[in-house]
Every structure is written in C-alpha cells, then in structure tokens.
Amino acid sequence: RPSPEEALQWRDSLEKLLQNPYGLASFCSFLRSEFSEENAEFWVACEDYKKTKSPVKMAEKAKKIYEEFIQTEAPKEVNIDHFTKAVTMKNLVEPSPSSFDMAQKRIFALMEKDSLPRFVRSEFYQELIK
The pTM is what? Predict the structure, then answer.
C-alpha cells in the first residue's frame, strides 16, 4: 500500500499513478465501477507490447490488441477518433514498437483529462491519502 504522500502525487501525474502497481490496480477498480476500464487495459497492453522483442510475438500481440480494443465493435473498444484509428491500422501492416503510440497517447490524454479528476474525487482515493 502506498504512503499517503505517494498517493498524493497521483493527483498531478497519471504517469506516476499508472507506473505504481497499487495505483494502477486502484485506478482500474475505479474505472471498472464507471464501466471504462478498457482505457487503462488498453494502455497496459500497449506498454507490454512495446517491450516485445520478437517480431512474431509482436505481430501476434498487435493483432490481439487490435481485435480487443481498436476494431469497430471490439469487445473493449476504446474511444479514439477515425484519424487515429486509420493511422493505427496503417501502422499494423508492419508492426513496430510504435504501432500504437498515437492511439495510446490519445487514451492517456482522455484518462488524464476525464478519469483522473473523477478518481481523485472518489472515496477510494480519499481513503488512500488519509
């Protein structure tokens, strides 16, 4: 469990929140309660994808991420604009570590602007900083 000081830093930094295993778990629980956990799950999947070294594994993961989060009617479709979706699809013709960068940045910005302020106001977070 993080110290209240550590948890306080999450108010100003979604990055610190997502990099902390406890912070990520808390944030995901909160998003689940709001029915928007796909954003954090997509972000985590992209982070994992970028660490993939094998081109074969990278292609497999890219396909899985695309099918789970990007394609229209995907089970956990994330909310990205058509331009970002088109760029991402083009990037997947030859998967590289940066294939999902634009989409991941969009989702990060969405969570930062939208979900993080609600999380910070939630009782869950308020308990952490006591």
Answer: 0.94
- Give the residue from 70, 59, 49, 60 showing the smallest Cα distance to 94: 59
In tens, the pLDDT along 60-94 reads 999 999 999 999 999 999 999 999 999 999 999 99
> Is the pLDDT confidence value at 1 over 90?
no
Q: Do 108 and 63 share a structural domain?
A: yes
User: Looking at the structure, do residues 27 and 76 belong to the same domain, yes or no?
Assistant: no
Q: Which domain holds residue 89?
A: 37-112
Q: Report residue 12 as tokens.
A: 């100003």
Long-range contacts of 33-38 (CB under 8 A, 24+ apart): 34/115, 34/118, 36/115, 38/69, 38/76, 38/77, 38/78
Number of domains in the chain: 2
CATH number at residue 24: 1.10.196.10
